[in-house]
Amino acid sequence: MSQNVLLLTNEVMEKMKQYYHKSLTTTPQGAVFRAKTSNVVITAYKSGKVLFQGKHANEEMDKWSDQSNVVESKNPKHSKSSSNTLYTPPDTLFTASHIGSDEAGTGDYFGPITVASAFISSSQISLLKEIGVKDSKNLTDEKIIQLAKEIAKMRIPYSLLILHNQKYNSLQKKGWSQGKMKAMLHHHAIRNLLTKIVSTPYEGILIDQFCEPIVYKKHIASEQGQLPNKTYFMTKAESYSIAVAAASIIARASFVKEMDKLSEQVGIELRKGASKLVDQTIARIIREQGEDVLQTCAKVHFANTQKARQYLS
């Protein structure tokens, strides 16, 4: 039985408690909640540690790993454990020419995972800020699409990769966790981008952190990959790095477009996220078109697949 631990904020733990509300069980001493599903037990402690135990511990942890952070960090720019200071970006990186990498779609039941890496020169930073480039989580889909077009006009070098649902589900069945999929997507997007800017100097590569750097290195090493020099990791990186913010917008714009394509393909508006409304949409698809259709448009190992069955009885 595998087990993994994440360090999460009280806010995220409350979201988790609501997410697993139908699976809640007796709360042990010192815990905020405990949930037990068919394949994993999740225990959230008041210390901020969340323990995942069971057959699918890795997969379940991956749903929340992108929100992992050091609780009550006094310096949000460097909210990582002291053992990873080698991967902490220098403050000078944010005003220098650098590469940023971010992803979209990881927590959404429907749709692919999209990853973008973008190179921003120091001379472009002020202009990108001026046109409104910032954390995509604080932007509407319409604004993201608009900004992605503006970024394209500036001829900013970038690499965009899309992991479509059929391939995602195939890799998951082979034992790949979502964390490994994300790591490999970032790795290949960065490698692709480096071939485009081969003679251009840059200060470093910043990845929006979704797992500990040592875990990321382990994932890419399992596929014979190596971490490029001057690669840094940082949670909430898009709030500090214009390169990561631009990559986030490119990735999110691609995800939105892919969701529109899938909705048209299925003939049903596919909702973002992983809410009850998503469960109801899943049930409608199964009822009208059969469960196999989900392989083409969804991340079928998410708990939503099972939750949707209550709407079929």
Automatic annotation (TrEMBL):
Keywords: Cytoplasm, Endonuclease, Hydrolase, Magnesium, Metal-binding, Nuclease. PROSITE patterns: RNASE_H_2. It comes from the Bacteria. It catalyses: Endonucleolytic cleavage to 5'-phosphomonoester. A divalent metal cation binds at D102, E103, D208. Manganese or magnesium. Binds 1 divalent metal ion per monomer in the absence of substrate. May bind a second metal ion after substrate binding. Gene3D superfamilies: Ribonuclease H-like superfamily/Ribonuclease H, TATA-Binding Protein. Its main location: cytoplasm. InterPro entries: RNase_HII/HIII (IPR001352), RNase_HII/HIII_dom (IPR024567), RNase_HIII (IPR004641), RNase_HIII_N (IPR024568), RNaseH-like_sf (IPR012337), RNaseH_sf (IPR036397), TBP_dom_sf (IPR012295). It is found in: Cytoplasm. Its EC number is 3.1.26.4. Its cofactor is Mg(2+); Mn(2+). Residues 62-87 are annotated as: Disordered. Residues 96-313 form the RNase H type-2 domain. One of its GO terms (molecular function) is RNA-DNA hybrid ribonuclease activity. Endonuclease that specifically degrades the RNA of RNA-DNA hybrids. Belongs to the RNase HII family. RnhC subfamily. This is Ribonuclease HIII. It comes from Ornithinibacillus massiliensis. The lineage of its organism: Bacteria, Bacillati, Bacillota, Bacilli, Bacillales.
